[in-house]
Design goal:
By secondary structure, the chain is of the alpha+beta class. The chain is built from 14 helices and 12 strands. Strands 1, 4, 5, 6, 7, 8, 9, 10, 11 and 12 form a 10-stranded mixed beta sheet that branches. A two-stranded antiparallel sheet has the order 2-3.
Amino acid sequence: MIMAMAAVFTLGANAQGPKGEKKENPNKPVFTIVKENPITSIKDQNRSGTCWDYSTLSYFEAEILKATGKTYDLCESFVANKTYMERAIQVVRYHGDCQFSQGGSAEDVLHTLKHHGICPENAMPFPGSLYGDSLNNFNEFFSLMEPYVNAVARNKAKKISGQWKVGLQGILDAYLGKCPETFTYEGKTYTPKSFAASLGLNFDDYVSITSYTHHPFYEGFAVEVQDNWRFPLSYNLPMDEMMKVIDNAVMQGYTIAWGGDVSEEGFTRQGLAYAIDGNKAKSLAGSDMARWLKLSAQKRTSVLDSLGCTVPEIVPTQEMRQERFDNWELTDDHGMLIFGIAKDQNGREYYMVKNSWGEAGEYKGIWYMSKNFIALNTMDFLVNRNAIPKDIRKKIKF
């Protein structure tokens, strides 16, 4: 602790050398890879709430890579086009008493693959190109979509026609592109369904895992978050077994489509995530509570960044997870891909995680998220059932 405190003050006084150059943070993590599984290239969702789409398609691309050795770039716009129409239909059925938004879950991608198929990225217009942008920008798109859907869902008519779907499909196609009925890939003609069938995956192999105490362990339930609008069941495991599934999957060559909370102070934009013990961190930074609370969010982040791999972490418990879920601290706000395990110079273990914000941060689109952070902030995740340890599979009876 003394060394960490000294490092913080040293950084504050000597952040720049004599010629103004920045000095390297002595607490910057130095990672040793324990296990790294193959993944496809980093993508950029840009100004769209489609992390669920990008992360889960990235997951299936990794699954294909593991199963067949082939690299695919699957089309996020195809999934979004199909998903937003189906979500709008549900909102209309509920007369507006549910949410229509950009967000979604891994189940939306799996459902699309099963029921509609998929196409490669180049079978539809490049994201943003239809409205003159170089990447997705859903600001204008959803400023049209949301009031349109709500106007239909909440109108006072005794009977509505199906023409609203025609109009909505026009908006979807105008901003995302029309989903192709057929296309050619590597010299062969496919439909979206036949292309999905050719990928070498069994889409019934995928299950969702979570960990909460307000439902029985080893049974399935639909996690109560708004973007889980299809109500798929997640198998409920004790926290230690949930983590055991992730570890086993990675070490056996599988990846994880992870959904959870990245709004915490310990999730940095530079590619790191820690379950920070706030009280200990304030102490290490030489700051009492009163002074700490007066610091701007940017300055607090700077102090925590300076602590680097010496930042103290809380040890998550099952009770913490439940309390944070019930009081809205643990939110469902981002989807990413876990694909590896690494250690820093102090022996702390991290998951290597692929993001969908382009080559952002210190590690060019990859985040190193401590195991404590993942244990504390996981909402649920999609995994191949064959990656689950046999003793746990027996308990959930599949």
